[in-house]
Please model this.
Amino acid sequence: MLIYLIIIIIAYLLGNISTSYIVAKKLAGVDIRTQGSGNAGSTNVLRTLGKKAGALTFVGDVLKGLSAVLIAKLMAYGLHVDQSTCAYLAVVAVVLGHNYPVFLGFKGGKGVATSLGSMLAMNPMIALVCLVFFIIIVAITKYVSLGSILGIGLSPIIMMINHNTKGVLVTLFLTILVAYTHKENIKRLFNGTERKIGQKK
Model:
């Protein structure tokens, strides 16, 4: 149980590394939480600070999710405990750390890129299928929020088809979390006021 707790703490703290906050401070000298939508995520950085800042934020968020799971797997291997359990705990903890970072007053991002990174470390094929699905949805509708929700929502379905019980539970949690953090976007999608990618305010 101690190793599980240590992995959860490490993953959560890695999630606390707010790429959007760091990029916005370094490139523009601003607190991203006071800009645009106020969300500390790559979409808000893209819209308020441009493509370079948005790309840096996205890559950073993906990498911290990836790193958290790889560290958990290495620790599990070295200490001879169940790797999948440790890795899935890291998935949940790093995304929670990103969404609710203690060092930023629990005001973080929406967890999409970090979820992608953590799932790349767990199952690259499923993660890439979901990413392609996200890209297709965004290309057709121009709604990043819709692509994010549907993209992550595909993962528990694939896990179910593969009879991966742990994977179903964790990806279902991620789907619910992403939907919850996009609750305002969902309202705007229904009433037709959600901004499309590239659309100005």
Summary: The two ends are 49 Å apart (CA to CA). The chain has ten helices and no strands. The longest helix spans residues 51-79. The chain has a mean pLDDT of 93.
